[in-house]
Amino acid sequence: LLLDFGAAWETMRPLSLDPAMASTVFDAAAAEYRAGRYEQAVALARQSLVAEPDDDRLWVVAAVAAHKLGRFEDAANAFRRLTELKPASAEHWSNLGYMLRLAGQQQEAEAAFVEALRIAPGAYGTLLNYGLLLMDMSRFGAARHRFLDAVAADPSQPEARIYAASACFECGDIVRAEQLLPPPGEWQALDAEARHDLGMALIRVGRAAEAERLLQSGEGDSDDPDLLAKLALLYERTNRLDLAETLFERLRDRLDGIGLESQSDALTVGSVLALRRKDYDEARALTERLLSLGPTPTGRANALYTLAAIADKQSRPDEAMRLLSEAHAIH
Length: 331
Fold this sequence. Notes:
single chain; globular
């Protein structure tokens, strides 16, 4: 939910040096970004910023390219500089909060979202991302309010209703959760991430059959690793362990070649399956591999809880207590 890069640079001022050179440098950096050469885009932007540290267009290039590279702290630093240059820009504050959340800096992220909402109280994207941060922090009541605010800000957006339903479920409001979930007629328009989140929400309110139909109706090859990972999670959570095991085995040798989210989903289901069949060494190895991916704070806490359970089963009480303490420090 970052600001649109193309729209951003068209509204920002040019470099204050030689206009011809400024246009050339900026256009070159922008072209590298559009071509997917994010390292080159960052390098060009940073090189020019040495001479022109106040050029907001180039800071945008540096920020969004760093985000694409997974360098969330670098992206956050760039957006922090943009908030200094344009403190009245709610978009820059919101993007700073988004990047800080990805970097695991929750308190700083919340402060940025609060400032963004002070400037633009009804901004849909800010409300949605602030709600997701609050979910990460297990502050489900506050998250529920932000998601419901997002629904009110733009009722046409199904994502806000999905996340609001999840927050209502966490707060024990099952009836409201059911009411908020988008009707089947809107499912086809959802992107892959929203379909996955909706699938998990449907499972939580007892509609596993619909969740399965939703995930299986996704476009793409039946051997698509993203789809397989999501279905494996669904099957494990609905106790169809043989189906979950089959899908995980189809993914096991392909983990290094798939996206981080799907790797995380696959490793999560693999470790839980190993734990359920009492293969504690396998469960430990898969969970430690999951931690090596650098998951979100919530994902890290969940992995640590899993390792604590494994340590307990392996009669390692001191290790189990240490891991529990580390997990509780996150959540």
